[in-house]
Amino acid sequence: IMSELNRIVALSATHIGMLEELDLLEKIVGISDDKYLCSSILKDRIKEGSLKSIGDIGMADIEGYIDVNPDIVIYSGFDTKAPILKKLHSAGIKTFTNYDWKETHPLGRAEWLKVFGVLFNKREKAERLFNNIETAYLNLVNEVAEYSSNETVMVGTLYGDVFNAPAGDSYMAKLLEDANINYKYQETKGTGSISLTLEEVISDNRETDIWLNVAAQSKDKVLEMNNRFRLLRSLQEDQVYSYYYEVNCFWEQSAIRPHVLLLDLCKIAYPDKFQKKKFSFYKKLD
Hints:
Elements: E1 8-10, H1 13-21, E2 28-31, H2 40-48, E3 52-53, H3 62-67, E4 72-76, H4 83-90, E5 94-98, H5 106-110, H6 112-119, H7 123-144, E6 152-155, E7 157-159, E8 162-166, H8 171-178, E9 182-183, E10 193-197, H9 198-205, E11 210-212, H10 219-225, H11 233-236, E12 240-242, H12 247-253, H13 258-269, E13 283-284
Parallel strand pairs: 1-2, 1-4, 2-3, 4-5, 6-9, 6-11, 11-12
Antiparallel strand pairs: 7-8, 8-10, 12-13
Helix pairs in contact: 1-12, 6-7, 7-13
């Protein structure tokens, strides 16, 4: 059965990243939406018509799925009750639910590569790749454990009236802990987000040194969100960093390259120790 899976529908950016690591991009025949693509190979295939955008599992109609004739549909388990799933099963199309997004440890998320290895007959390659990722990640954790910084970090962005920040047991909080960074809301509970009012964020973070993951590409855009952000030390002292310059590439590649993501965070926290390293996902706001 494993070798028969030659036509893949991959509905999440992280699935594409994992399939790319295993040299399986040419087997992808359907994705949810091409506006979220990073891979230049897949962008070219969209243009030539050998790859199609067929909509996400919760909203799509089955005709688009049947049209690409997949051997397997890989989807994130946000919507396991979607009506289209029953129709796919009735049509004899295999589906696979991927829960990588539930993992709170960066290496746990990357380890889903092994699942893809089993599915697509690339088990040895997946094991080897993951072992390299794990080694690089843990070596970096050990290296920065010896550094010390008094700087504090806030993370998140404003959507409407709510500021969403990672909770203390979340994936992002774990990355910050492994990068030996003092995260402002490290002690909060939960594996998802915490919702803060603008007032709370401003009063908590006037003296916070660094701001990560704001959904903007310039300081002007941050102030357009809310002019009161000018009160934050991080903005005043040009210590705001975001992955929004290459947001598609961040979602497609960061889950499978946690060691690279961790290196970016270490470079932000300890710039003098990582001067020679280039950023892969993050950039300082203009």
